[in-house]
Amino acid sequence: MRKRNVHIQFWLDKKEAEAFQKKVKKSGLSREAYLRHLVNGLEPQDAPPPDYYAMMRELHGIGNNLNQIAAKAHTLNALDVQRYDENCRKLDEAVKAITAAVILPRPMKSSGSPRNLFRGEKEHSRSDKRSAM
């Protein structure tokens, strides 16, 4: 049985459809996944550059090598455990921070109208409109 069993259909004008398709393509997500992000109050990120994945593989490889070195050093009792653990923690934090900055969707900043958010227009607060007068 499908996890998602509610079908929703809606219509866009040509300009909206082009803007939507452009944003979806830029994000690297499917149209459905893009809309699910928006419905859940998340702003999809642009797809990361191809180099991102190569860099992350390299960082994960470094982490794996560190773990192998640690296993060997522990058996030989030749390791500054505190210093090693601190550096492993820093590597893990760096990988998580890079992933969050580049891949993970962010909460939406504005509660503007869906039309403005969909078109990529910024929401203007009432105070901004008053100050412009």
The string of secondary-structure elements, in order, is: HHEHHEHH
What is the rounded distance between the termini? 56 Å
Low-confidence stretches: 123-133
Helix content: 55-70%
Indicate the proportion of strand residues: under 5%
* Biggest beta sheet summary: 2 strands, antiparallel
By DSSP, the count of extended strands is 2
In short:
This protein is mainly alpha-helical and 133 residues long. Helices cover 64% and strands 3% of the residues.
Can you put this structure into words, describing what you see?
With 133 residues, the protein is mainly alpha-helical. It has helices spanning 14-27, 31-39, 50-76, 81-102, 114-119, 126-132; strands spanning 42-43, 106-107. The protein has a two-stranded antiparallel ribbon with strand order 1-2. Helix 3 (50-76) packs antiparallel against helix 4. The radius of gyration is 22 Å and the shape is elongated. The chain starts with 13 loop residues before the first helix and ends with a helix.
Descriptors:
single chain, 2 strands, two-stranded antiparallel ribbon, mainly alpha, disordered C terminus, 133 residues
Question: What are the SSEs and their pairings?
Answer:
Blueprint: H1 14-27, H2 31-39, E1 42-43, H3 50-76, H4 81-102, E2 106-107, H5 114-119, H6 126-132
Antiparallel strand pairs: 1-2
Helix pairs in contact: 3-4
